Amino acid sequence: MPSTATRAPVSRRRLLQLSGASAAVIALGIDARSARSEPPSELEGAAAPEGMFSLGVASGAPRPDGAVLWTRLAPEPLAEDGHGGMPLKEVTVRWEVATDEEFRGIVAHGRALAQPALAHAVHPRVEGLDPGTEHFYRFRAGRELSPVGRFRTLPAEGEPAESFSFGLVSCQAWYHGHFTAHRHLAAEEDLDLVVFVGDYIYEYGITETNLWRQGAEVGEAHRVEIETLEQYRLRYALFKSDPHLQAVHARAAAVAVWDDHEVQNNYTGALSDTGIPEDDFAHRIAVAYRAFYENMPLDVAALPDGTDTDITDGFDVGSLARFSLLDSRQFRDAKPADAAEQHREDRTILGTEQEEWVGERLASSTATWNLLANGVVLVPIDEASTDMWDGYPAARRRLLAQMAEASNPVMLTGDIHKHVAAEIPADPDDPAAGALGVELVCTSIASDGDGAADAGTPETWTRHEYVKLYDGRRGYVHVRLTPQEMVSSFRVVDWIEADDTAPEQLRARFTTPAGEPRLIPA
Ligand code: FE
Ligand code: CA
Question: What is the C-alpha separation between 1 and 174, in angstroms, rounded?
């Protein structure tokens, strides 16, 4: 690893354990050694069923020289045993990357082993590509070719980049409505990356009461709150069967942090919010984290070791931007019993190690924009919102001090199922101290159904002078960074329950000039 470590320390250790073990690396579905002299061949291993690419393709963990590619073989994605209709055998998957959509100019290819132990998902990392270049990729298994995906490699290290655009999304309660917002996001002209900030799935049982997605039906296996590895795998398959989500993944590289529903509502660290005994909940965390890895385009460093895993990541977009992806769920202290506990100085939401890691990344950054992504709202809203950073005021003061060290800090957040934009107070206790950066909170893709502009409790938010936007409809945020400014466009759709045809509207657009932590209506 380079000295400007992009991941928190725990995963560096895990990566060291893995490196050199080439057989293990192939077995984990991450073999990226491009055997350039070896022609692509037919299926190896089990005789392959048809329709294996029903869950689409994805790419992630972008770097200047490559990315991680992902697919999960599932000819029957909704098979109730969670195995996606695959035989419990290994299948060799070939992948290739080209600079043109017709794959005339193949610049890398290789193979990875899809195996039942990892839900027949593969995560090969492609290396050796040219920076700042659009690439196309596809997989082959048996006689089948996958859909084509694309990603753009990041600009070379330190290179000035003219612009970089990304989509910000969260909260995909599939059963609450259609992924119309994803349909529009996939059609954005300008899209280098998609940032998922949590609640990629929900664990709740899907019943007549909460199935608002008209035209959808689900079988018995979906009716209970999920708990086992097979159930989590099936839940990811259900959500990922959505064609618009697949289109977004095929359109651009994705990075993801999780929030609570990837495991269970409002859990804190090792503790369930519903009183599940700690040993039982540890098992649940382990299988949930593993299913997250299996289903996302993550680097192998995010492969869980039991309940111990590391989804933090960091990368630079030339000299334009530094991204740091935070885990605001796994290491947090329990819900406070009272105000005294809430305000304790030693209370943490990121954990000590991650606090140090992000502080170092912010202090050492020379990028124009410094973006953090996390699961829960940072700016002060309501003392009673203890699941957000409001529940961890001392930790927030420490993070704000770290953010103040970097130029143009931006927090990217989801969780609340509302669009919110805020200028982050430099000192929450002193309104005269002004702002130090901005927070962009994306509404949900589907959670809470159709919604309405004034859904929820708008006054709880807009009573704060530093909150500049509130909207309770579904949508996403599109962000464009240049050396001069950040332009954030908050998109909404008026309905999602009836069908996926709602047109998108621009709800608000803000300009944030570099050096000026403001949200200026544009
Ligand atoms: Fe949510
Ligand atoms: Ca949440």
Answer: 38
Show Cβ contacts of residue 80 under 8 Å, excluding neighbours closer than 6 positions: 219, 220, 221, 234
Give CA–CA dist 345/34, Å, rounded: 50
Q: 259 CA to middle of ligand 2, Å?
A: 5
Taking the centre of ligand 2 as the mean of its atom positions, its distance from the CA of residue 27, in whole angstroms, is 33
| Helical axes 352-364 vs 393-403, angle rounded to 10° | 20
Q: What are the residues facing 425 on neighbouring strands?
A: 435
Residues β-bridged to residue 474: 493
205: exposed, middle or buried (C-beta count within 10 Å: 0-12, 13-18, 19+)? middle
| Cα gap 195→37, rounded to integer Å | 36
pLDDT digits (tens, 9 = 90+) for 296-323: 999 999 999 999 999 999 999 999 999 9
Domain ranges of the chain: 12-521
Transcribe 245-276 into DSSP letters: HHHHHHHSEEEE---STTTSTT-BTTB-SS--
> In angstroms, what CA-CA distances link 349 with 329, 335, 345, 511?
7, 10, 12, 30
- Residues of the chain where predicted confidence (pLDDT) is lower than 70: 1-47
Q: What is the pLDDT of residues 200-247, one digit of tens each?
A: 999 999 999 999 999 999 999 999 999 999 999 999 999 999 999 999
Q: 390 CA distance to ligand 2 centroid (A)? A: 14
Q: What is the pTM of this model?
A: 0.93
Q: Which ligand is nearest to the CA of 266?
A: 2
SS (H, E, C) 287-311: HHHHHHHHHCCCCHHHCCECCECCC
Structure tokens at 399: 């993070």
CATH 3.60.21.70 is the classification of domain 12-521: yes
